[in-house]
Design goal:
2 domains; alpha+beta; single chain; 63% helix; 6-stranded antiparallel β-sheet
Length: 408
């Protein structure tokens, strides 16, 4: 017996509406939490609002990628919770249709979300991350050159920069004094006749090149002086940028899949000659590559779990079991992202292979989904949420009994 097209469309629509609502809510929450740093650039650093709006648009894809599995899980729970509450599932099953067969539109909906997530992960997010990184670097470059004022001690991260004269839109400095507090164990002061701010768009790094000067460094009264003709100081632009300078023009999160594979192959081909930093870079590339597919694949894993949580039995308190379903669903998705974050960290450290770390959360959730899917075919099926609600319902009585025994 094939699934009637009418029921197919009906279940699809039931999932679609809560999916869009939860996707909007989750993306908005994630966006607001992360955009506070960008708002700070507008308020405290006088960055044009038009530039910030463009940068805001570049951070949306990364949040959409995270919000898609969350929204899918809650949407399916809500949809099947409503079908159970209105006894529509009973009517559907009375026609001879099993719960397993009813999972077909759920799996097709999750496959559609999976395809969207793959599009985001493989193409849209790398492009948006790269544009965001380039935009933030341009802001850092502008702030570094235009933000310096002649005759004033300018605080620039852990550097204090004084220049008697500033020329060429802040890029050329005369009679420069720099206090360097980056090393708390050593006091360091640079004095130079001239200076120039240099930018490296390829690595997205800024530096201050000093000419004809000296370095006084030491602790207490014990100082040594070193003279130089040319000296470079890396400027701390971490207040504006989110990560360390890019390697080879792009960070791992900004590379397309083909670029990640090429980078992995080039680094893996010289494994024995790699230093610690290069090995870590290789691990980051490998983790990022597996993350590109593992996170979208979670949409397929959570769909059946959500259906099992959403179906409510005819007996018992449907309101309490529905609330338990939503709460358990939120708890599961938080657990998934916690596991995913831990896998990301240990994968980048090289503690376990990247593929094993990044696919372990999906593997565990897939096994849980298969178990629940098999249980849905049983006539003795009782919703997980109902079991949880029954347990919570019996808890007050057990606590009262325990209290009475202690009193006696």
């Amino acid at each position: 017996m094939s699934l009637p097209p009418l029921i197919f469309r009906y279940v699809f629509r039931e999932i679609l509406t809560p999916f869009w609502i939860t996707l909007f809510v989750f993306t908005g929450i994630l966006f607001l939490g992360r955009s506070l740093k960008l708002v700070d650039l507008v308020v405290n650093r006088n960055v044009p609002a038009s530039d910030m709006i463009i940068l805001f648009s570049y951070i949306v894809p990364r949040f959409l990628e995270i919000a898609l599995p969350m929204s899918l899980l809650l949407a399916v729970i809500v949809a099947f919770g409503r079908l159970s509450h209105d006894s529509e599932l009973i009517v559907i099953r009375a026609t001879g249709m099993s719960l397993k067969r009813l999972a077909v539109p759920v799996l097709l909906f999750s496959a559609t979300v999976f395809a969207i997530a793959v599009l985001l992960s493989f193409w849209i997010r790398p492009w948006a991350n790269h544009r965001l990184g380039v935009g933030m670097f341009e802001i850092a470059k502008t702030q570094a050159s235009a933000g310096l004022v002649a005759g004033v001690f300018n605080e620039f991260g852990q550097l204090t920069i004084y220049a008697e004269g500033i020329e060429a839109h802040g890029e050329k400095l005369n009679n420069v004094i720099i206090g360097d507090r980056r090393d708390p164990e050593v006091n360091r002061i640079f004095i130079a006749q001239h200076g120039k701010i240099l930018s490296d768009p390829w690595r997205r790094s800024l530096s201050l090149q000093l000419y004809d000067g000296s370095i006084a460094e030491g602790r207490g009264s014990n100082f040594t002086v070193t003279y130089f003709e040319i000296n470079n100081i890396s400027l701390p632009h971490s207040a504006l940028l989110e990560e360390r300078p890019a390697q080879g023009g792009k960070r791992a999160s900004e590379m397309y899949v083909g670029e990640l594979v090429s980078g992995i192959n080039s680094l893996a081909g010289a494994t024995e000659r790699l230093d610690k930093e290069q090995r870590r870079e290789l691990a980051k590339h490998q983790v990022e590559l597996h993350k590109r597919l593992a996170l979208p694949f979670s949409c397929l894993c959570v769909a059946v779990i959500a259906m099992a949580l959403g179906i409510q039995p005819a007996r018992g308190s449907q309101a309490s079991s529905a609330s338990a379903s939503v709460g358990l669903g939120i708890g599961l998705i938080l657990l998934y992202y916690f596991m995913f974050a831990v896998a990301d960290a240990i994968g980048e450290q090289g503690i376990v292979p990247a593929w094993l770390a990044m696919w372990t959360p999906n593997g565990l959730f897939a096994l849980l989904g298969l178990y629940l899917f098999e249980r849905m075919g049983s006539e003795q099926w009782m919703a997980v949420s109902q079991a949880l609600a029954d347990t919570l319902g019996r808890l007050p009585a057990k606590l009262r009994l325990s209290s009475q025994r202690q009193t006696a």
